Amino acid sequence: MDEPDLDQDQDFVVEGEDLPVLLERLLGESQGRTQKDLAAEAGISYPTLNAWMNRTRGTSRIDPERLRAMVEVFRRWGVRTTPREFFASVGRPVPGPSGDEREAQLLKLYRQLPESRQRALVKNAEAMLQLSRTI
Q1: Distance (Å, whole) CA 42 – CA 36
Q2: What is the 3-class SS of 66-121, one letter each residue?
Q3: Closest CA to 58 of 21, 90, 14
Q4: Contact, 88 vs 13, CB < 8 A?
Q5: Could you tell me the end-to-end alpha-carbon distance of the chain, in angstroms, rounded to an integer?
């Protein structure tokens, strides 16, 4: 059974909730986890995360991959959240899927094809690559 696509669930977005409020709420739901834990697991420096939390550093230009990393950390901790919730908290729409997500989606589709169609897809991809090199 497939997992529900939490990225599409708009009910998670709390209107008017900025990033510091969102992070405070989610940390409160994460059973004893701290800002330092979040920073370490998301690959963000603690001073940077702390500055976002204390509103001494703006959040509108945070790299999308940092926002996605925090979502994944909270999900690993068992906290329900979505990228949409994080992007809304910094006043931006969710960008398209990341490179890793696109690759995972492509692989999932590829594996569902019969073997003859998989071979055809590889040939088409090779032809597209050759064509892109000449343009």
Answers
A1: 10
A2: HHHHHHHHHHHCCCCCCHHHHHHHCCCCCCCCCHHHHHHHHHHHHHHCCHHHHHHH
A3: 90
A4: yes
A5: 43
DSSP-derived 3-state class of residue 13? coil
Which residue from 95, 93, 41, 96 is spatially nearest to 71, judged by alpha carbons? 41
Cβ atoms of 72 and 104 within 8 Å: the answer is no
Q: Which residue has the tokens 């409160």?
A: 28
**pLDDT tens-digit series, residues 64-122:** 999 999 999 999 999 999 998 999 999 888 777 667 777 888 888 999 999 999 999 99
pTM attached to this predicted model: 0.64
pLDDT digits (tens, 9 = 90+) for 37-58: 999 999 999 999 999 999 988 8
